[in-house]
Amino acid sequence: MVPAVEPFALALKKATINDMIIPVHSNVDGKIYRDANHIRRQLPKQIYKPVCWEQTLHILYERPQGNHFPRTFECGPGKSLVTILNQVNKKAGDSAAKVPC
What we know:
By secondary structure, the chain is mostly helical. It has 2 domains: 1-51, no CATH class; 66-100, no CATH class. Helices cover 41% and strands 8% of the residues. The protein contains 5 helices and 2 strands; from the N terminus they run αααβααβ. It has a two-stranded parallel ribbon with strand order 1-2.
């Protein structure tokens, strides 16, 4: 997959990418993209680097004691997301809801 990185990065330079209006997390390190240039630097890495799914979930659901906990909705067949949430963060799994499609 590494050979695809350079052409993809060149295409991103030509693409219109706006700064985010909602938080978007990078699969590379779980951190929130800061701006459009940060997206251009990080997205090509997703081609060849492993997805940091567990680290991202920890970042998404980390809350100080007593703070509101976000609700998660799983759409579609199966219950993969809820299962993973229960393994990574029991409180997140308990707050998740299955939404039939």
